[in-house]
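Hi,

I'm pasting everything inline rather than attaching a file, because the server keeps stripping attachments. The sequence lines come first, and each chain or strand is labelled.
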Amino acid sequence: MKDNGSAKRVIRKDDLTFLQKTYITEIAKGLRLTVSKIFKPKFTHNYPDEPWPFQPSFRGRPVLVEEDGIERCVACGLCSRVCPSLAIEVQASETELEKERYPIRFEINMIRCIFCGFCEEVCPEEAIVMSDEYLVAFYQPKDAIYGKDKLLMSTERLAKRLAFLKENR
Amino acid sequence: MIETLLIAFIKIVIVLLVLLTAVAYSVYAERRISAFIQDRLGPNRVGPFGLLQPIADVVKLVFKEAIVPRNANKPLHDLAPVISLTVALATFAVIPFGNTITLFGEEVKLIIADVNIGVLYILAFSSISVYGIALAGWSSNNKYSLMGSLRSSAQMVSYELSLGLAVVGVIMVTGSLRLDQVVMNQTNYLFGVLPAWNCFVQPIGFITFVVAAFAETNRQPFDLPEAEPELVGGFHTEYTGLKFGLFFLAEYAHMIVASAIITTLYLGGWHLPYIDMIDVSPMLMSIIGILTFVIKVTLVLLFMIVIRWTIPRFRYDQLMGLGWKVMFPMALLNIFITGLILLLLQ
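And the predicted assembly:
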């Protein structure tokens, strides 16, 4: 360090007008910006109060489609076979209805599920689809196993996703 | 005798309660406004619009552990925040927040201590406040704290001078050191229309005083004692819990008191211009006076907050250069001009 004083290193613009040198007009300009910012709309999204709107292509937790109070599922077990993380368990049974078979037990372990959407892709009946729900949390590991009570979701509720699938599959 | 004491006591309690609440809410205002300026929303979770946030903050600070560094000077370490807050609150004693109010047949002056050297009292107390910071820095046994407090001392000494000299202009115009006299003097009108506030009577003195007041309260752009990027936390690096809370309160109390002083000395105090042209009852007049004072102080406070988020911090040499090479001559010039005009008017 040859030069100990800081005076030489200070960069000063020579072409400032007198008003700019007094700094007061510059403060006023800055204040105009900051004060106008106060009244402008904010960037922050009020997340839990205003949920984020999702596109129909969003893959939330997988659910069973419920049409007229009955699930579409015929318990073929393809979803269970294709599931890469072995999260789905289906147990079939017979029924008087036209589809003849139905799942007496259908469980998805939400700790194992990776939201890949393979089950939805492989399903021949379009009976299991990805919903727009994504808040999956539990206190006990045993609460993570979602049975039919939690998995069934009406067609009205899933209308957007079903329309999306019809168009893109 | 007992009556006077009782009235004084009641005034002190009311003013203290209002002041402390205002301090807590100025913290909230600062956080909200800074957030708005930066396109954020700020604290809005506790209560409606986050209005209960100050309570949550205080409760949190009270329950935090108070840590004293091993080699710190404990008595002084404990004393420093107390000095800071006491001085900040005590300064408010001489500020008239209204004219007079007649309650239960008793005429009460709306000022805690009606002393005849109010201006000197303010200057004296604002000098003592540097002790709080200097002791905090020294007793913490921490290099950052010490650096912060040294900077603060140097800054306060430099700016005290221009602060005092700027006030001299006001005293010359008023001809008295009484603050209520200063306010009364501003109830006239210049050329019959403009209120004779001192900020119009002496604009140079006003600007000098405001800048010096910013430096005195350690506010941006002069907050070098606690410049976060360089000094960690400055003088309160080693403070935790309630003692840190006291420093925090003191900083905002200083801001409010500074706003009140600026209002009293330069912005007409409790006087609402043109109100004396309408006929209002004396009781209503007193209440309007108090409200006017509160609104004026709030506006100055908001100005201080917005300035903080507008102007970047000065470098240390710039700060000293501004203090000695610009503010000091400007204050002297103000005295000279004021004296000249007063001489010509005689």
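Chain B touches chain A at residues 33, 36-41, 207, 306-307, 309-311, 317 (CB under 8 Å).

If the labels don't parse on your end, tell me and I'll reformat.
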